[in-house]
Amino acid sequence: MKEILIATKNKGKIKEFSDLFAEKGIKVSSLLDFPGIEDVEETGSTFIENAKIKAETISKQFNKIVVADDSGLCVDALQGRPGVFSARYAGETKNDEANLEKVLMEMEGVPFEKRTARFHCVLAVAIPNEETRIYEGTCEGHITEKPEGENGFGYDPIFYILDREQTMAQLSSEEKNKISHRAKAMKKLSENWKILF
Ligand SMILES: O=c1nc[nH]c2c1ncn2[C@H]1C[C@H](O)[C@@H](COP(=O)(O)OP(=O)(O)OP(=O)(O)O)O1
Ligand SMILES: [Mg+2]
Question: Which residues form the active site (predicted)?
Fold first, then answer.
């Protein structure tokens, strides 16, 4: 069976990539399968830079093709924050609940029509001795006033999808994988599938 290494330890991402790649008959491995590998420091100032850093660092260590995902939530009323700081918005411990509570607090009093936001996903595909490829996807939504829903991960419980009338965390994983920023970036990657194998 074909297999691809994703340079992440984020269980929410790994679950989604496992489902998205399974549709193509490809098995996903991740850095959770290699506990000795240290976290890659995200020193870039954009999603693209950080996705590249993660993919290229791990690709060099394994000398094989590696996919990395750098993603986050950009809120208009917060001038695009948390953006590239999404994972560590409330501190270096990377706590999803503390992060979304911080966003809700900062959004207190902002009316619905000004609560627009988007998820952004950059996939970097690092290939030994080749230029790294970049694929992007976004998903539009509104920030709720309180968390709703149990599915997904990260900021999903406060991200409301207007035409579904539900938060991302109220969607099933199948539904999320049809509309998410990650699914859209994956679709672009899949149009260039032959670079992977
Ligand atoms: O579909 C999503 N639904 C909800 N929240 C999401 C989603 N996609 C990204 N996010 C949030 C989670 C985290 O706060 C940040 C990603 O940060 P990001 O640095 O890319 O990932 P990470 O540090 O958790 O794992 P890693 O870098 O090892 O892949 O954006
Ligand atoms: Mg990260």
Answer: 70
